[in-house]
Automatic annotation (TrEMBL):
InterPro entries per the UniProt record, alphabetical: LolB, Uncharacterised_CoxE, VWF_A, vWFA_dom_sf
Domain of life: Bacteria
One Pfam family per UniProt: VWA_CoxE
All residue ranges annotated as the VWFA domain in the record: 210-369
Lineage: Bacteria, Pseudomonadati, Myxococcota, Polyangia, Polyangiales
Record's protein name: Mg-chelatase subunit ChlD
Amino acid sequence: MSRNEDLVRWRLILGAPSAEALDRACGATADDLASDAALAWLYDRDTSNEERDIRQGGPGPSQLTVPEWINEIHRLFPKETIERLERDAVEEFEIHEVVTNPDVLSRMEPNETLLRAVLQTKHLMNQDVLAMARELVRKVVRELMEKLAKEVRQTLSGTRNRRRSLRKRAYDFDPRGTIRRNLSTYDKTEKRLFIKVPLFLSRSKRHNERWQVILLVDESGSMLSSVIHAAVTAACLWGLPSLKTSLAIFDTEVVDLTSQIQDPVETLMKVQLGGGTDIARAVQYGETLVENPRRTIVVLITDLFEGGDADALVRSTKRLCEQGVRFLVLAALDQNAQPTYDRDLGRRLVNVGAHVGAMTPGELVGYLKGIIA
């Protein structure tokens, strides 16, 4: 019997309850059944499936170990599906062996989901596994930094002025000036403009107007993605002549990591997720770092669920804003930028001069440029 692609998909969605009705009709191959077994290993753990009559597992034990399951999904599924399965294993079903077993770690594709899992479970790892995990963290962080570093350099390396430059760099290209200069080469028949003389603008670097950026990052478990991107962002900002960057993480205590800011891997491996949160104490510590209030930007990354003194937090924020500090509260700093935070406390901070929102790392860089340019 020929294989029916649509029926095979339904067979994989519905799982074992559909076997009698669909196995023969869909013409499932050995690999299709192996795919079903791999999906069952993971998703039959979901008790809500019983209510929907899909993917119900039998009473017997699973026939796959974690390493075998990893090997099977890498053999059977495309990359996008593998990443989703691995993410669900770690985040939805908390199968910690996915990131604490060296055989499994060696097979997994480095990605941000895996990075979050490593940071959540590194306390379960022995030294050998931890060494592997650190290298995995390094690979993911390197990729994140490569994406952001170019944007940071282009945005904050200096502001463009209207003087012409002989240096032909793509991000200094002057499209309007180039069009005006080359209008004589417009071909009416082909309706195309031929550029003979591209124009570029120069960048002026304002070393004498150095700004201070103070990043205060909540290390509670719900802020993990934001912690990762804050560490990477801080490393990318470090060393820019126009900025002096400081980084501190906090729960009920504050740990200044500025001395390690150039190595976000070490920063992240020091993160201790969970515990209480004293945001007021973190902001009070940030106050002690301010050198020139009117040249300072404080970026507080937290969900604002304060375990300390909320009134003290509002007072400290008001004091900084009245001195001229730009105070930004980010409830999320990641690629999704979907905030979940204490909106009542957020409104109180806005009322004393703070800005509250959520940003991607690139948007934060743009925000900084808008202030210091």
